[in-house]
């Protein structure tokens, strides 16, 4: 039985690397070294590509997380704007009640509903902006009227016409307020006549 050339042991094969003209081919280490160098180069390229893809995926994940947070805040802001209208109506009802009506079961129920509604908004991060008695801040307040007052520092919020709300550091709705201004001589004369 005749053996295939790859089955012949190296010492029996003789000079298997001889060329037909009888010249010897390069020793077997040189082609292996070239293949090894090429394989290392390819491995380095693949490693570099893998690192780039990993960094890209990490950046995308971070970007998606930021976008998801922005979208969530926008949804909560829209929701809050809609629900604040309902809370405004509850505030109006409570303000318009007499003391007797507030002590009735219906009045207590409306007041409790108002409190629970505000707590639910707080659970989403929506909070009231305190205005009355505080310095006017155009970032949070919208001045609807200026009233001359000598007994209060100019720029102090005198009254809150409509409550303001914020979501963290973001304005949902500005508080509509009445602001004190310095009383001048014309105002003093008008008050005295």
Describe the structure.
This protein has 193 residues and is an alpha+beta fold. The chain folds into two domains: 28-124; 126-193, Nucleotide Exchange Factor Grpe, Chain A, domain 2 (Roll). 54% of the residues lie in helices and 17% in strands. A three-stranded antiparallel sheet has the order 1-4-5. Strands 2-6-3 form a three-stranded mixed sheet, with no helix packed on it. Strand 4 and strand 5 (170-173) form a beta hairpin. Helix 2 (29-96) runs antiparallel to helix 4 (105-123). It starts with 9 loop residues before the first helix and ends with a helix. Mean pLDDT is 85; it is low at 13-19.
Q: Which descriptors would you attach to this protein?
A:
single chain; 193 residues; alpha+beta; Nucleotide Exchange Factor Grpe, Chain A, domain 2; 2 domains; three-stranded antiparallel β-sheet; three-stranded mixed β-sheet; 5 helices
How would you spell out the order of helices and strands?
HHHHEEEEEEH
Provide the helix percentage. Answer: 40-55%
Supply the number of helical segments: 5
Radius of gyration, in Å, reads 41 Å
User: Which band does the percent of strand residues land in?
Assistant: 15-25%
- End-to-end separation in angstroms reads 135 Å
Strands, count: 6
For the biggest sheet, the summary is: 3 strands, antiparallel
Mean pLDDT: 85
Count of the separate structural domains: 2
Strand order in space, largest sheet:
1-4-5
Structural class based on helices, strands and sheet pairing:
alpha+beta
Uncertain regions: pLDDT < 50 for 5+ in a row? 13-19
């Amino acid at each position: 039985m005749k053996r295939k050339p790859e089955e012949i042991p190296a010492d029996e094969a003789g000079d298997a690397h001889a060329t037909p003209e009888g010249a010897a081919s390069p020793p077997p280490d040189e082609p292996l070294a070239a293949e090894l160098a090429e394989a290392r180069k390819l491995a380095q390229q693949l490693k570099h590509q893998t690192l780039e893809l990993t960094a890209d995926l990490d950046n995308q994940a971070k970007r998606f997380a930021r976008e998801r947070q922005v979208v969530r805040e926008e949804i909560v802001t829209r929701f809050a704007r809609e629900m604040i209208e309902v809370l405004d109506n509850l505030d109006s009802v409570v303000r318009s009640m007499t003391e007797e009506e507030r002590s009735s079961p219906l009045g207590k129920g409306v007041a409790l509903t108002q409190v629970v509604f505000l707590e639910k908004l707080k659970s989403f991060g929506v909070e009231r902006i305190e205005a009355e008695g505080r310095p006017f801040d155009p970032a949070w307040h919208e001045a609807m009227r200026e009233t001359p007052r000598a007994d209060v520092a100019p720029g102090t919020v005198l009254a809150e016409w409509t409550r303001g709300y914020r979501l963290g550091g973001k304005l949902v709705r500005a508080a509509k307020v009445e602001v004190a201004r310095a009383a001048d001589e014309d105002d003093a004369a008008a008050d005295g006549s």
